[in-house]
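Revision sheet: structure tokens.
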Amino acid sequence: MKSPYEVLGVSPNATDDEIKKAYRALVRKYHPDKYRDSDLADLATEKMKEINAAYEEIQKMREGGKNKGGNGAYNGNPNASGSTPQFAEIRRMINQNNIQQAENALRTMDSSMQNAEWHFLMGCIALKRGYYVDAQNLFDRACGMDPHNQEYRNARDQLRASSSNYGAGYRTTSNADTACNCCSNLICADCCCEMMGGDLISCC
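Predicted:
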């Protein structure tokens, strides 16, 4: 049986926009109205049912790991490459800002579980806390372990771009005493929220 991603012809690591684009292309191709007076009408109808069911299933899976309204840069998909039920639960904790609980769960995992996904999620936690150097190092490690994972690469590249564009000031300890630090904290927090499927600053 095909997975919903296979039905739409996309990778499980595809962004929300890529999935929507693939879905719309298939709708245009197989819409029953195009085959109304054809012998293929019934086949087109069945194909559209399959396409719609696959799209709806992907939406449900992705909404389970994120808040709606994300830009697709980090989709929070619990079925992403490298994920297990444990990692999916940790993603949920991060989405709900249960940062300490998520970190504790990661740190108590066996060393055999410290794969690319583990480093990526630790990077998300570091970013949430404003530890940008640590976050960048962890994202780099995740990308090194799984170089083809678009989710990890997006997180790494967004953090680099935020630092370059806004002068976020990489650091390994939290210090929000100045107005400048406050602004950079907000920018990076917004970046993190977008990666986890939300949006802290709607204009950015």
